[in-house]
Design goal:
Elements lengths: L2 E2 L2 E2 L6 H4 L8 H11 L12 H11 L5 H17 L3 H7 L14 H4 L10 H10 L1
Antiparallel strand pairs: 1-2
Helix pairs in contact: 2-3, 4-5
Length: about 130
C-alpha cells in the first residue's frame, strides 16, 4: 500500500484514480503530476515501485495538500466569522454561504427535516381558560 502525504492510497485502483484520495488533489492535478513524473497512468497503486512513490511525493510537495490546505481553509472561515461578514455569519449558523436558496433544498447543510406541528383550537382554548 502506497502512503503519500499521510494518506494510504487504495491498492487496486489506477494511480490516476487513487491520487484524488489526497485532499486538495483532483483529477486534473493528478493527471498533470503523473505526466510530470513520467509514470504510466494505467499502472495500479500496488505495482508502483519505491522510486515512483518518491517521485510522486516530491511532486506533491510543490502544492498545498492535506493538513496545510485544511488549516488554511479553516483559517479563512474563522477570519470571515471574526470580522462579522455575511459569509462568516452564514458559516457560523451552518447555512449555505454562496447565495443558494434555503426555503426548499439545502438539506445537506441544514440537516434532517424537523416537522413543526400546528396547535389545535381546542388545546388553545383549554390553555387560555387556565391562564
Amino acid at each position: 500500500m502506497a502512503r503519500i502525504s499521510g494518506v494510504d492510497l487504495p491498492n487496486e485502483k489506477r494511480i490516476g484514480a487513487a491520487l484524488p484520495y489526497i485532499y486538495g488533489v483532483g483529477l486534473t492535478l493528478a493527471k498533470s503530476i503523473i505526466a510530470s513524473c513520467a509514470i504510466n497512468p494505467n499502472k495500479r497503486t500496488k505495482d508502483l515501485t519505491e522510486d515512483d512513490v518518491n517521485k510522486l511525493q516530491r511532486a506533491l510537495e510543490k502544492y498545498k495538500v492535506e493538513g496545510d490546505l485544511r488549516r488554511e481553509v479553516q483559517g479563512n472561515i474563522k477570519r470571515l466569522q471574526e470580522i462579522g461578514s455575511y459569509r462568516g455569519m452564514r458559516h457560523s449558523k451552518n447555512l449555505p454561504a454562496r447565495g443558494q436558496r434555503t426555503k426548499t433544498n439545502a438539506r445537506t447543510k441544514r440537516g434532517k427535516r424537523i416537522t413543526i406541528g400546528t396547535v389545535r383550537k381546542d388545546v388553545v382554548a383549554k390553555v387560555s381558560k387556565t391562564a
